[in-house]
Each structure stands twice: as structure tokens, then as C-alpha cells.
């Protein structure tokens, strides 16, 4: 352990024929992504407070929560809660209110005033304390949503531009197509798990995109190197060789990032859903480098990347 | 590639040592006030507290400016002995328009208006319009300047009001063109602060038009204002401001000795005192109204001239409302109404839970990565681990140096940085393994490993950096903090992997000259 490594992921010189299963990989990915898009359309993402607007108050009651009591207390303050539910521990209660419709006059002021009413209601419950109280007005939530989507879109464009600049366009296009496929699957994961989609989730998705790109860049880097080195090798064989050569690294780095994010998923309190999405993204991003990005590169580059060096007929 | 000069060695070690020094203030107590002591601030989510996002009502800033411009226009025309009719303001266009008494006066009107004093060069333009009316138009620059001033001034007033509440370490910052962020650590119920900041506190003194009492439609220059304690009752009050509340020097809450009720005592400055004395002297026996934010607090009858510059307001206050009003009057009126559009509060127990969760995750994640690297990469894995520790130290050091704020997402950013940081070491090690398998000597293999891996490392970090720059640019609060820690982490990662861990490997090689590499 202190001098020679005790464990290895893959032995030296593996020769797994990944490209033979390329249509299988692409088809699986397509099915998963289409399913995700359907899930996105119906039932759709659970929007978090950032993007939906409204009020969320988390309360810790003395002893196991009595929801009837909480609802009664809210009723005395004339607050109509959209949801009173438990989360985490049995003594934790989450009170959710919708924002007044943005069309009504002074809806912003009313949103903010509602929080105080909820606080007053909670104050009448013996021993209860407010853990968190957030109120986001309609104008702010609309802006946060726009900014989040802009950050996602511009990041994708910048990644496209960067890879284009550093490699050939075939690399950039196949990377971005793969990233979009990764992204749709992550959205599908969010729909299935009912994790709230908010700014923190945008951060998770952007981190996944960055990580996934990094993974693809490493494989592409090797493809480019081998393109110069083996001038006559067919592209399919060459991509297979490159994936095999970088396989140990791909699995190693995925594992360390996975291990770093795992405790956050298990113990990370409010960030645990963020970390689960990260873990999902790491698995998806790693497998897509091998099974998606490489086959797309092969499809796009079969004619072009090898044009000058194809063996004469 | 395989040689490090003593100078380079010394500087890498020095940077790491400096990093450790910079981390110390977070763990120790400041020995003396003169010792520079920079440490990381805990974010509201870890510390507990309130975050308020406030919007400055820009429409009212424009409306206010147009009202004074209209007033100024009337004064200028009257001063020059000219007449006018149909004075109107258009907030959207930023204009005051009127029709001259007769077309023959147009030239004189223009001349008089162009002589009006301007706060900034070209603040407004005066022009005749095709229909014969005259328009005074504020320039967009002047309006923008005034809006900026209003926000700056609002921040100042907000700061004064919050300081007066005794809040510890409040952070008040501008966001965008017309927003103010107020962060209040330790205050987990911001209701009182919201009330204090939501009050404009514009106090003015007007005469009550008793002759219009009871009529539903007040005459020109008179408005019906509701009483503060009885909003159904309305009082006809002259629009003209006799004394302005901004001319106060002091205000305090006290119990009135005669009535035993809470009241607010105030003192005018010399301008206010003179105006107050003159007004009261001229109007003995009439009623004057104390108006706060367009509501009549009180309308007492003037018994005699008040010359001392002291006054008292009593209008059914309790201890809290009297104290708050005194505080607001001392701090001054806001130039425009402020409204809260987003608030987030975190209780102290949740903050403590989050710190614990973050620390546990960071500790376990760090340990898992270290064990992994040791098991899978042996000696070179341990070198990577040394670099990893240095990476953590340097991240904390940079955050401390800039006295940055650390939030729970920020801690997640540090953790993910640690997970990604060893990627560079893995790339180098795997490359060395490959080169050894191809039959290269240890020296050649290490050289090739460093050389080939460097461009890959730079590429992969550059793409991660791009994504997080976007996140920082478009995110807010905790998300920005996440992006910031990752961006700092990318820089420290490049340093620790490209310099530190590589140097450890090279020095080990130079020392032992091994025939077989531990890969």
C-alpha cells in the first residue's frame, strides 16, 4: 500500500471491442432519453421554490408532529397551506404555500406578508421552532429561472466552442450531442425521484456537464494522439484502442469523484438530493463517454477524419 | 521535466507553508488587535440569519422628480410674471408640459425655463411642441443618475436603520440597478426589520384646511389624507409643505409626563426650527397636520408660537411603535419606497445541523479518496494524497485571505474539487503505466507521463472552469458560492498536481534511482 498499488481496475492492454456494441449503446441511450423527454412533458419537473415562487416554511415541533394541530394553527391565521407534510425526521414539518397569482395587485407584498402569518401560527404551537422560512416573489422566481436556463445554454455553447477550438468540429459536435443526451437523462432522473428543480440543481447539472466534458476530452485527446500515431488504422479500431487505453483512468477518476460525492448524498442534509443527482450524473457521464460520444464520433468522422489515410482500394 | 531547481522547490514549499499560516486564523483566536487576522465567514445557511432582497420603487423616484420639476416650472413662470395652464406630467416620457397663456409669451416662457438651475449639466431640455405647448423633458442620463442616487441613498438609510437596531455584522449591498440585498446573520425572524425597512418615514408638516372639512371634493392644492389610527376618517390637508421632517436633528421615544402615553420627541435643526417658528406664529388657533407617509399621525391646534425647535408627536403609540418611529426619523426618510421581493431565513439550529453535515461529508469524502488513491496507486498515490491535503489547505487559505463566505454548497464545491483533483495524478500514473508496459525505462516513462498528461489536464480543467464561470455569472448567493469554491479549487488543483505532486515524484526518483517504478 505504501509502495506498490494493491488493486487494479483493469489489467494492462485490455482489448474490449466497444465499437461493436455501438448501435446497442446508442439505441439504449436514445430510448432512455426519449423516455426522459416524455417524463419531462408529463408529469414534468417538480419546480423548487427558486423557480416556482411562493413560500416554504420548515418547522420542528416538540415530539412527533401533529399535522391536524399545525393545520388548525394555520387556519386561525387565515392561511391556506398548499401542503403540510413531513420531511426527514418525524418532528419536522414542511409548510408549503403557493404565491398569490402574479396578475393580482401587490402580489409581491402579499407573498412576503404571508410568511409572517405562518410564523405567527407556528408561534402558537407549544415548543415549535422555525428552522427555515423562505418567500420568493413571482418576479424573482421568473428571473432566477431565466438566469438558470441562460447559464445552462451558454455553458453548452462555450463547451462546444472550446472543443471545436481544441479539436476538430466532429469532436465538438459529438461531445455536445452526448452532453444533451446526458442532460435529458438527468432531467428524467429528477422527474422520477421528485427532487425539486431549483438553482442548486442547475449547479449540479452544470457540474455534471463540466465533469462529463472532462471525461470526453480525455478520450478524444487519446483519439487525436492515435490518429497521428497509427495513420492507417481504421477509425473504429482506433477509437476502440483509445477507449481501452484510457479505460483505467476513466474508471479511476469516476470512482474518486463518486466517492467524494457519496458522503454528501448520505449525510449532506439539504444538499443530499444535489449529491444524488451528481452521483447519477457521474455514472451517466462516464458510460456516455464510452458508449455514446465515441460511436457518434465514429459516425461523424468515419469519412472525414480518415480521408487522407484510407488504404487504397 | 525531471529536474527541479532549488529555487522552484523552495517556492513550492513556501507557498504551502504560507497556506498553512493563512488557515490558522480560522482555528485560533486573534492574539492582539494589531495582528492581521483574516478568516472565512460562515454563510447565512451555516450561521443562521435572514436574507432580504428589496426592490427600490423607481416609478416613485421618477414621479417625485417630475413633481418637483413641475413645481419649479410654475415658480419660474410666476417669477417672470408669465402665465400657464394645463400643467401635466408624463412619467413614461419624463416630461412636464403646459400651455402658455398666449402664443406671444412662448419666447419669454422658453427663456425663463432655460434659466432654471440644473443639478447636472443638460439635466433637462425645454422645447416648443407642434401643438403650441411647451415641454420640459428630463434627459435619460439625468434620470438614470437620479435613480442611481436614489439607490445609493436608500442603501445609506437602510444601513443607518439596521445599525440602529443593533444587528451584528449586517451586509448591505446593491444588486443590479434597483435592488438592495440585506443580510442579517443571527436574526432568524426579520419581521421587525422588514417593517422598519418597508416604511418610507417621510414626515412633513402641513396646515389643515378647516374650511374644506366635511366636503367630499377638496379644492385645488388640497388633499384628503386618512388618519393613521382611523383610516376611514379623512382630513383635508394643504399640499404645501410648511416644515419638512428631513430638517430634524434628533428624535427619541419617551412617555409624556402629562398624559402618561408614549410619544416621540423631536428637535429641528436651525432651518427647521425657523420654519416651524414662523409657521406656528402665523397660524395660532388653526390646526396643523403631522403627516407620515401620506397618513395624518396627529392634527393638533396651534396654541402659541413654538420657537424652541422642539416638538412632540403623540398619536396612540405603544413602546415599540414609538421607539421605531424615533429610529426612523433619526435615520432619515427613504428617497423611494422599498419592498421586499425575496426573503430567506434560516434558524440557528438548522445552521448548526448544516455545518455538521458539511464537515462529516468533507471528512468522509476526503478519507475515501485518500484510501482509494493509496490502494490503487501505491507510492505515487500517497504523493497525490500529500498534494490533496495541500490542495485543501490552499483552498481554505485563499478563502481566508479574501475573507470569503463559505456556504453549504461551497463545502460541496470543496469536496468535489478534492474528488476531481486526483484526476491529474491518475492521468499521469496511468500514462506512466502504459509507457512501462511499452518497455520504456522508468525515467523515460515518467517523462512521457508528465509531458503527455499536461495538455489533457489543462484541457479538462479549462472546460470545468468555463461551466463554473457561467454558474458564477448567472447564479445567486449559495450557487455563486459553489461556483467560486470550484473555480478557486481549479487553480489550487493545477498548482498542487502540476507542481507539488510531480515534484515529490521527481525528487523520489532522483533520490533512489529505482529500476522498477511502483505502478
UniProtKB/TrEMBL annotation, chain A:
One function term, GO molecular function aspect: protein-transporting ATPase activity
Q: Which Pfam families match?
A: Sec_GG (PF07549), SecD_SecF_C (PF02355)
For whether the record's keyword set contains Transmembrane helix, the answer is yes
Q: Which Gene3D superfamilies match?
A: Multidrug efflux transporter AcrB transmembrane domain (1.20.1640.10)
Note the InterPro entries from the entry.
SecD/SecF_arch_bac, SecD/SecF_bac, SecD/SecF_CS, SecD_SecF_C, SecD_SecF_C_bact, SecF_bac
Its BP terms in the Gene Ontology are:
intracellular protein transmembrane transport; protein targeting; protein transport by the Sec complex
Q: Which keywords does UniProt give here? A: Cell membrane, Membrane, Protein transport, Translocation, Transmembrane, Transmembrane helix, Transport
The record lists the membrane-crossing segments as 21-41, 148-165, 172-193, 199-219, 251-269, 275-300
One Gene Ontology cellular component term attached to this UniProt record is: plasma membrane
**What membrane topology term does the record carry?**
Multi-pass membrane protein
Q: Where in the cell is it found?
A: Cell membrane
Q: Which residues form the Protein export membrane protein SecD/SecF C-terminal domain?
A: 127-302
Q: Which family does it belong to?
A: Belongs to the SecD/SecF family. SecF subfamily.
Function in brief: Part of the Sec protein translocase complex. Interacts with the SecYEG preprotein conducting channel. SecDF uses the proton motive force (PMF) to complete protein translocation after the ATP-dependent function of SecA.
What do we know about how this protein assembles, alone or with others?
Forms a complex with SecD. Part of the essential Sec protein translocation apparatus which comprises SecA, SecYEG and auxiliary proteins SecDF-YajC and YidC.
User: Under what name is this protein listed?
Assistant: Protein-export membrane protein SecF
From TrEMBL, chain B:
Q: Which UniProt keywords apply?
A: Cell membrane, Membrane, Protein transport, Translocation, Transmembrane, Transmembrane helix, Transport
- Tell me the compartments it is located in: Cell membrane
Q: Name one GO cellular component term.
A: plasma membrane
In terms of superkingdom, the source organism counts as Bacteria
Residue spans crossing the bilayer: 357-377, 382-402, 482-501
Q: Which InterPro entries match?
A: Acrflvin-R, SecD, SecD/SecF_arch_bac, SecD/SecF_CS, SecD_1st, SecD_SecF_C, SecD_SecF_C_bact, SecDF_P1_head
Q: Which residue intervals define the domain Protein export membrane protein SecD/SecF C-terminal in the entry?
A: 339-509
Q: Single Gene Ontology BP term? A: intracellular protein transmembrane transport
Domain spans labelled SecDF P1 head subdomain: 231-336
Q: Name one Pfam family in it.
A: SecDF_P1_head
Q: How does it sit in the membrane?
A: Multi-pass membrane protein
Residues forming the Protein translocase subunit SecDF P1 domain are: 151-210
One MF term in GO for this entry?
protein-transporting ATPase activity
According to its UniProt entry, what is the function of this protein? Answer: Part of the Sec protein translocase complex. Interacts with the SecYEG preprotein conducting channel. SecDF uses the proton motive force (PMF) to complete protein translocation after the ATP-dependent function of SecA.
Listed NCBIfam families: 2A0604s01, secD
The protein's assembly and partners: Forms a complex with SecF. Part of the essential Sec protein translocation apparatus which comprises SecA, SecYEG and auxiliary proteins SecDF-YajC and YidC.
Family label: Belongs to the SecD/SecF family. SecD subfamily.
Q: What is this protein called?
A: Protein translocase subunit SecD
What organism is listed for this UniProt entry?
Gluconacetobacter dulcium
Q: What is the lineage of its organism?
A: Bacteria, Pseudomonadati, Pseudomonadota, Alphaproteobacteria, Acetobacterales
Amino acid at each position: 500500500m505504501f509502495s506498490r498499488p494493491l488493486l487494479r481496475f483493469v489489467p494492462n492492454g485490455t482489448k474490449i471491442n466497444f465499437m461493436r456494441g455501438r448501435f446497442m449503446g446508442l439505441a439504449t441511450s436514445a430510448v432512455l432519453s426519449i423516455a426522459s423527454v416524455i417524463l419531462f412533458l408529463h408529469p414534468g419537473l417538480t419546480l423548487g421554490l427558486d423557480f416556482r415562487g411562493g413560500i416554504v416554511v420548515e418547522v420542528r415541533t416538540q415530539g412527533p408532529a401533529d399535522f391536524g394541530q399545525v393545520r388548525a394553527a394555520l387556519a386561525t391565521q387565515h392561511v391556506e397551506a398548499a401542503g403540510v407534510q413531513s420531511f426527514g425526521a418525524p418532528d419536522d414539518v414542511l409548510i408549503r404555500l403557493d404565491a398569490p397569482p402574479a396578475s393580482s395587485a401587490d402580489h409581491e407584498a402579499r407573498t412576503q406578508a404571508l410568511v409572517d402569518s405562518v410564523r405567527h401560527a407556528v408561534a402558537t404551537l407549544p415548543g415549535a421552532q422555525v428552522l427555515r422560512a423562505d418567500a420568493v416573489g413571482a418576479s424573482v422566481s421568473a428571473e432566477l429561472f431565466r438566469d438558470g436556463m441562460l447559464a445552462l445554454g451558454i455553458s453548452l455553447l462555450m463547451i462546444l466552442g472550446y472543443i471545436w477550438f481544441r479539436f476538430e468540429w466532429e469532436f465538438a459536435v459529438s461531445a455536445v450531442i452526448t452532453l444533451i443526451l446526458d442532460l435529458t437523462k438527468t432531467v428524467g432522473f429528477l422527474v422520477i425521484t421528485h427532487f425539486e428543480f431549483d438553482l442548486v440543481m442547475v449547479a449540479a447539472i452544470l457540474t455534471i456537464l463540466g465533469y462529463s466534458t472532462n471525461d470526453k476530452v480525455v478520450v478524444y485527446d487519446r483519439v487525436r494522439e492515435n490518429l497521428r500515431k497509427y495513420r492507417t488504422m481504421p477509425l473504429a479500431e482506433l477509437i476502440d484502442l483509445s477507449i481501452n487505453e484510457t479505460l483505467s483512468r476513466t474508471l479511476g477518476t469516476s470512482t474518486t469523484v463518486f466517492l467524494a460525492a457519496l458522503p454528501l448524498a448520505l449525510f449532506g442534509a439539504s444538499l443530499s438530493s444535489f449529491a444524488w443527482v451528481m452521483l447519477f450524473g457521474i455514472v451517466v457521464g462516464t458510460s456516455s463517454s464510452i458508449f455514446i460520444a465515441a460511436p457518434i464520433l465514429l459516425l461523424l468522422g468515419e469519412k472525414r477524419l480518415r480521408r487522407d489515410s484510407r488504404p487504397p482500394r | 521535466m525531471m529536474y527541479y531547481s532549488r529555487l522552484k522547490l523552495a517556492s513550492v514549499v513556501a507557498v504551502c507553508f504560507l497556506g498553512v499560516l493563512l488557515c490558522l486564523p480560522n482555528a485560533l483566536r486573534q492574539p492582539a488587535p494589531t495582528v492581521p487576522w483574516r478568516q472565512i465567514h460562515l454563510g447565512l445557511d451555516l450561521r443562521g440569519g435572514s436574507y432580504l432582497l428589496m426592490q427600490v420603487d423607481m416609478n416613485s423616484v421618477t414621479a417625485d422628480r417630475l413633481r418637483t420639476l413641475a413645481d419649479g416650472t410654475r415658480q419660474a413662470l410666476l417669477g417672470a410674471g408669465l402665465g400657464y395652464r394645463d400643467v401635466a406630467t408624463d412619467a413614461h416620457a419624463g416630461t412636464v408640459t403646459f400651455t402658455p397663456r398666449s402664443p406671444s409669451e412662448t419666447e419669454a416662457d422658453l427663456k425663463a425655463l432655460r434659466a432654471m438651475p440644473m443639478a447636472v449639466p443638460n439635466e433637462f431640455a425645454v422645447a416648443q411642441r407642434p401643438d403650441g405647448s411647451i415641454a420640459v423633458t428630463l434627459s435619460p442620463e439625468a434620470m438614470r443618475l437620479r435613480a442611481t442616487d436614489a439607490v445609493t441613498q436608500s442603501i445609506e438609510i437602510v444601513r443607518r436603520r439596521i445599525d440602529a437596531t443593533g444587528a451584528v455584522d449586517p451586509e448591505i449591498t446593491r444588486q443590479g440597478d434597483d435592488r438592495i440585498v440585506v443580510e442579517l446573520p443571527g436574526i432568524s425572524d426579520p419581521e421587525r426589520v422588514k417593517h422598519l425597512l418597508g416604511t418610507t418615514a417621510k414626515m412633513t408638516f402641513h396646515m389643515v384646511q378647516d374650511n374644506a372639512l366635511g366636503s367630499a371634493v377638496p379644492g385645488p392644492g388640497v388633499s384628503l389624507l386618512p388618519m393613521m389610527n382611523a383610516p376611514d376618517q379623512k382630513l383635508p390637508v394643504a399640499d404645501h409643505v410648511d416644515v419638512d421632517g428631513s430638517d430634524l436633528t434628533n428624535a427619541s421615544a419617551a412617555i409624556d409626563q402629562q398624559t402618561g402615553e408614549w410619544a416621540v420627541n423631536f428637535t429641528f435643526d436651525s432651518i427647521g426650527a425657523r420654519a416651524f417658528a414662523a409657521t406656528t406664529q402665523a397660524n395660532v388657533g388653526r390646526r396643523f397636520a403631522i403627516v407620515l407617509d401620506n397618513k395624518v399621525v396627529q392634527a393638533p391646534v396651534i396654541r402659541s408660537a413654538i420657537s424652541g425647535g422642539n416638538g412632540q408627536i403623540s398619536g396612540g403609540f405603544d413602546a415599540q411603535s414609538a421607539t421605531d418611529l424615533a429610529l426612523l426619523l433619526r435615520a432619515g426618510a427613504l428617497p423611494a419606497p422599498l419592498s421586499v421581493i425575496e426573503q430567506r431565513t434560516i434558524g440557528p439550529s438548522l445552521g448548526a445541523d448544516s455545518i455538521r453535515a458539511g464537515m462529516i461529508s468533507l471528512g468522509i469524502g476526503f478519507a475515501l479518496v485518500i484510501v482509494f488513491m493509496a490502494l490503487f496507486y501505491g507510492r505515487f498515490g500517497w504523493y497525490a494524497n500529500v498534494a490533496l491535503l495541500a490542495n485543501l489547505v490552499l483552498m481554505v487559505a485563499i478563502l481566508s485571505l479574501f475573507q470569503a463566505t463559505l456556504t453549504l454548497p461551497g463545502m460541496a464545491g470543496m469536496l468535489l474539487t478534492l474528488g476531481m483533483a486526483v484526476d491529474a495524478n491518475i492521468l499521469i500514473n496511468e500514462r506512466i503505466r502504459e509507457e512501462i508496459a511499452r518497455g520504456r525505462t522508468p525515467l523515460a516513462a515518467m517523462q512521457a507521463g508528465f509531458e503527455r498528461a499536461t495538455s489533457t489536464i489543462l484541457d479538462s480543467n479549462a472546460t470545468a472552469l468555463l461551466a463554473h464561470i457561467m454558474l458564477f455569472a448567472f447564479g445567486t448567493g449559495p450557487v455563486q458560492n459553489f461556483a467560486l469554491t470550484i473555480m478557486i479549487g481549479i487553480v489550487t488543483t493545477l498548482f498542487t498536481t502540476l507542481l507539488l505532486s510531480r515534484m515529490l515524484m521527481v525528487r523520489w526518483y532522483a533520490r533512489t534511482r529505482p529500476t522498477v517504478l511502483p505502478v
